[in-house]
Write a structure and sequence with these properties.
2 copies of one chain form a homodimer. Chain A is α/β, with parallel strands linked by helices and about 200 residues long. Chain A contains 8 helices and 7 strands. The first copy, chain A, has one domain: P-loop containing nucleotide triphosphate hydrolases (Rossmann fold, 3-Layer(aba) Sandwich). Helices cover about 35% and strands about 20% of the residues of chain A. In chain A, helix 1 crosses helix 4. The longest helix of chain A is centred in the N-terminal third of the chain and has 15 residues. Bound molecules: guanosine-5'-triphosphate (2 copies), magnesium ion (2 copies) and zinc ion (2 copies).
């Protein structure tokens, strides 16, 4: 929980700094292995010529995700939280302190793999995007109403596995609509590329 | 983080209470949708005649998991944390306050879907079991070394999907061994039943 609203304040500062430098910043969150990195890799492939992109990866340990995305010709930065289960606005500000933000049009921040805590910590991004995966089973939306309420769009990933896993994707979308009738929902497969154009449209990129 | 060791203290109290009533308690943790509930359902089917079982489910919202497990003829209890991303020892003690623990031989506690925080909060259980799933991708072990260090056994679930997902299960086990050379590792499919007997042996049930 954000005691004393300290994170809200830090997020507002980040948002102002990003606006000042013309950065469009997206906070990509979701549980472990829902496809956040693969999705960002696909977005970098599709948008790398149109925008100058920086990718900031957040994990307790390793630089695996930043290294993966760096293969796609974009600049990357890794934040290791060591014990914190979510990125917060202060960590992001500190990580970007020595970065010349005027070099970038778009910044993708991949949050720590966790469907709960990152929802409570805005980073100053333009949009907080939640990536859920069909492999998480049919109940993950109903079990995390706060996360759905606090985000700006929901991406249902790994739809290429819908038949193999016997998951009813319509039911998942209904669960989302029940919590937020108007939130954008995009069905994608980061693996096959299905839905990536719709996602780009939802992001306004 | 467990400030001032308050949770450690509460966990010790729980452990003493469980010993006093002859309860063997297992804390089952893992990220969202890794198969914790399906695994517990399988264990209840296999062990329900041999032991009197209580299942305690932890989630931010809903009683979906307790309801699922109740179908297998065992007593269940649901804890809704509302915002907390992990169960702690105090929540467990409060939930069990009006329960006659002498009625049970085995208690399965399913923690909140989260690979990070529950690792830092012992509940007073005999063993903390981490369930990882092949659907989380190949890097989840390296990214969560603290979780692996703090648990007593690792269950690699959904191995029935190994080929379809092209995941190298040996590599995942090597990553675990790198962090803890001696920790028991069991490969299972909660869906097909593969490995459940090995898991029962590892649990000492
Ligand atoms: N079938 C299928 N697999 C996918 C898809 N997207 C990702 N994966 C697989 O899911 C696993 C995890 O993908 P990642 O991109 O590492 O997921 P992540 O959310 O970044 O994971 P963490 O950052 O570790 O939480 C990998 O094995 C991917 O190949 C998809 O659309 N379809
Ligand atoms: N193929 C396959 N699917 C599985 C297996 N175990 C669980 N699943 C599926 O994975 C999804 C999630 O299973 P659950 O048992 O609800 O997982 P969970 O860890 O309890 O989920 P939460 O409590 O919501 O975090 C469901 O769609 C299950 O059918 C398995 O061994 N193989
Ligand atoms: Mg990633
Ligand atoms: Mg469950
Ligand atoms: Zn947290
Ligand atoms: Zn936590």
């Amino acid at each position: 929980q954000d005691l004393f609203g300290a994170n809200e304040e830090a997020a507002a500062i980040n948002a102002a700094v990003f606006r000042e430098h013309g950065n469009r910043v997206f906070d990509i969150m979701g549980s472990v292995g829902t496809g956040k990195t693969l999705l960002i890799e696909s977005l970098c492939e599709r948008l790398g010529d149109k925008y100058r992109i920086l990718m900031v990866a957040g994990d307790l340990a390793t630089s695996i995700d930043a290294d993966r995305v760096a293969q796609h010709g974009v600049d990357t930065l890794q934040i290791n939280t060591q014990t914190a289960c979510h990125l917060d606005a202060r960590m992001v500000r500190v990580a970007l302190r020595d970065v010349d933000l005027s070099k970038y049009d778009v910044i993708f921040i991949e949050n720590v793999g966790n469907l709960i805590c990152p929802a409570g910590y805005p980073l100053g991004a333009e949009k907080k995007i939640v990536i859920v995966s069909l492999t998480e089973g049919p109940y993950m939306i109903r079990k995390h109403p706060l996360t759905i309420k606090r985000c700006d769009a929901v991406v249902i990933n790994k739809i290429d596995l819908a038949e193999a896993l016997e998951i009813d994707v319509d039911a998942i979308e209904r669960d989302i609509r029940e919590i937020d009738a108007k939130i954008p929902v995009v069905r994608v497969s980061a693996k096959t590329g299905t839905g990536i154009d719709d996602l780009i449209q939802v992001l306004g990129l």
